[in-house]
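We now fix the convention by which a protein and its fold are recorded. The integers have meaning only within a learned vocabulary of local backbone shapes. A complete example follows; check for yourself that the lines match position by position.
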Amino acid sequence: MTSGTSLIIQQVNSTPSFSVTTPDLYTIHTLVYNPATLDLTIVVPGQTTGFDVNSLLVQGGGSICAALDVTGAPINVANPDAGTLTAISSSVCGANGNAIISANPDGNVFVPANYQIIYVLTSGSGLVIEQVNATPTFTVTVGGNYTIHTLVYNPATLDLSIVVPGQTTGFDVNGLLVQGGGSICASLDVAGAPIAVEDPNAGTLTATSAAACFINGSAVLTATANGDANVPAGYQTIYVLTSGSGLVIEQVNATPTFTVTAGGNYTIHTLVYNPATLDLTIVVPGQTTGFDVNGLLVQGGGSICASLDVAGAPIAVEDPNAGTLTATSAAACFINGSAVLTATANGDANVPAGYQTIYVLTSGSGLVIEQVNATPTFTATAGGNYTIHFGLQPGYIRFNDRSAWSNNRF
């Protein structure tokens, strides 16, 4: 057996069968000779050529009577080798969107003439083929365990149109190859470069009501998850209440329900995180903001794989407060058939944007409305018990009408 076009003798055998370990053009020749006239010890494997031997023979211009099939049976041995890959990162975060996964070839691939190299992305332990690419870089939109493989193949012998993404597996392809028990000469790096893609997704929330009103000094804010969150294994869900446009964190809770005691604009957010990578003790209520937390996450330019629904569910808490009034005088007396009743606001009222202030005069224990006014000043023409109200917080005036004709209270 010779190698190359120079027919360098590599091996001899009593049968036309040889084992080789290096890809090359090999030729198997037959030599019929008389050991008494041709001493084969002159052959130095790797140095002596078939042409050297042929030149000793009569057919090649020499003097020894023997026959060498110079043309022989040429065999081109291809040895495609997919080599190996190393993932740039064995774990990639795909929070709230796409994740780019990639690997670097280790430099041990071999692509014979007429062969091509292609990279294959598979998912799961079943190695389901998802994508192919000319480079070992892929974009995925779903979390899970992926593997990037190298395939070195000859398009003339392996038709990749047989691959149906999402159905065909790497094992299916490997079974067609010599290395997997098939007949096609190609090389697939079955082990490949494994990469785990984590895809926490906080999803979205819908506020039970976009506006809430205080009842007895507090308001309950609630929201409902829309069912579009994803919580991978090892991750947890927590809800965060922020206030104002600066998203100052006020409270956290296991459910999207919070009680507040001050009016303003609030937002309920969902946070899906791994306690092993995000330590929530960094949060100082009233100081730390949602933007601070988001800045730590991959989605916000940081390095921690977690998902925060920054937009969240906004809720405006309206806290109109009538405050209290103090009567200018607890009793008034008619002058010329009437009495002026006045009160002073104590400065503890709250009038939110869009709200108005009005004062109401009522009479009797049944609080029968007699008059309304833009100021807490009213003129009464009959005696009795009156109350001036600002909202629901009253200031009381007792009005005594003493007539010149009687001593009766009216």
